[in-house]
Write a structure and sequence with these properties.
Layout lengths: L6 E7 L10 H12 L6 H22 L12 E4 L5 H20 L4 H6 L6 E12 L8 E11 L3 E10 L4 E14 L10 E2 L4 H44 L1
Parallel strand pairs: 1-3
Antiparallel strand pairs: 2-4, 3-6, 4-5, 5-6, 6-7
Helix pairs in contact: 1-2, 1-5, 2-5
Length: 243
């Protein structure tokens, strides 16, 4: 059976550097939790509860969205089992591309569909690099998101983030190198091989980068407002305690 995005070359481990504060979510929960033990009033308790509810509901936005992952286009969700992290990424990669096609380029639905077949221009996974953050154990669920990092003439790089639903944190990060491959050249003198990124994909990629930047800015702005609200609560509660 034909399998799209066939992984061909290598799987390696690497350290992934991120400018995002990986502990931001847990730090805000800790700050809010402390206020309940320092004589917060009913109004202050209500405000803290509202903030905790926001963090619980939107944690994916703050963990992944702040880095530019489009969390509205969830790539994959599933239970933890013996399936490897790379298989999660492989399955989610197809869903990521389908989401792009459906939302940003429905007119070229057929062309996107043919990328998963050897009938013409297809996509091949040249390499995947994995940085494991912590071991996940059953029972747990994962959410997997992809983000376009860069696009060259005949290949593109994808960042992948695998989230633990139980721990609400990053369980692993991956970086995938995808090659565009022409399985059936039009000319008899041509041989199958790497091919340029098709124009319809290039346009969607440009729109995707713009959306990723906007998503990151929006999430970071929301996180900044949460910081300010928690700062104000801490000043009220702790200042009254010291009087």
């Amino acid at each position: 059976m034909w399998r799209p995005f066939l992984p061909l070359i290598r799987i390696t481990q690497r350290r992934h550097k991120s400018t995002h504060n990986a502990c931001w979510l847990s730090e805000q929960k800790l700050r809010l939790g402390r206020l309940f033990f320092h004589g917060a009033t009913s109004e202050e308790t209500y405000e803290a509860g509202q903030l905790l509810s926001d963090l619980a509901q939107n944690w994916r936005r703050y963990v992944a969205g702040a880095e530019g992952y489009l969390i509205s286009d969830i790539s994959s969700q599933g239970h933890v089992n013996n399936v490897t992290y790379t298989r999660w990424a492989e399955s989610a990669r197809i869903n990521w591309a389908w989401n792009l096609a459906k939302r940003l380029d429905p007119a070229n639905h057929q062309k996107w569909s043919e990328l998963w077949t050897p009938r013409g221009t297809g996509l091949i996974l040249r390499s995947i690099k994995v940085d494991y953050k912590f071991p996940m154990e059953y029972p747990d669920r994962v959410s997997v998101y992809h983000k376009l990092r860069t696009a060259g003439e005949d290949h593109f790089l994808l960042d992948v983030i695998i989230l633990s639903e139980k721990h609400q944190r990053v369980a692993a990060r991956c970086m995938e190198d995808i090659v565009v491959y022409n399985y059936k050249p039009s000319g008899p003198e041509q041989m199958p091989g790497k091919a340029p990124i098709p124009p319809f994909m290039g346009k969607v990629f440009a729109d995707t980068v713009r959306e990723q930047t906007e998503a990151s800015s929006s999430a970071r702005e929301a996180m900044g407002k949460i910081d300010e609200r928690i700062d104000a609560l801490e000043k009220q509660v702790l200042a009254r305690k010291e009087m």
